[in-house]
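Lab manual, section 2.4: Encoding a predicted structure.

Procedure: take the sequence of the chain (167 residues), apply the prediction step described in section 2.3, and record the output as structure tokens. A sample record is shown.
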Amino acid sequence: MLNKEQLQTIIKLQAELDLKIVQTKMIEESQDVLTAKFLALLVEIGEFANEQRCFKYWSSKPASSKAVLLEEYIDGLHFIISIANNLKLNLSDLKIVEQKYDNLNLAFLDLFSETLALAKEKNLSIINQWFNIYYTIAKLCDFSGDDIFNGYLDKNKINHLRQEQNY
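Recorded output:
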């Protein structure tokens, strides 16, 4: 998983991107923006699951490439870090513990559940459990901490460019 330095860098970069979006789009931070971020996170988790294809029992087509899966994983990471920044939750205090799952379907279902719980309760203990699950999914997908960190840096650059191009 990410080391503390990598996580702190991501938190800082996400705060800078969020500020740029607010300024570029002239958005007033409000509960509506936070609600939109939670919905966006759920959508990104769904897109990740869709590319993973673990739930598609009717299909013999394999999961998308590791690069595609990592990109979807990173999209979810962008939103959860943005949400944590919004809520002023100190992610440096996270205690990540790998979870045990018989299959990815159960992990994704738990991740959806924790996302909805976080949208209601907005506390560090729920976000810690969210990260436990997300970390476990990363391991099951064979993503290293460096894969995640470098993937985040690449996507962050793309997101800044998109803002500059009036995305």
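Check your result against the sample. The chain has one domain: 4-164.
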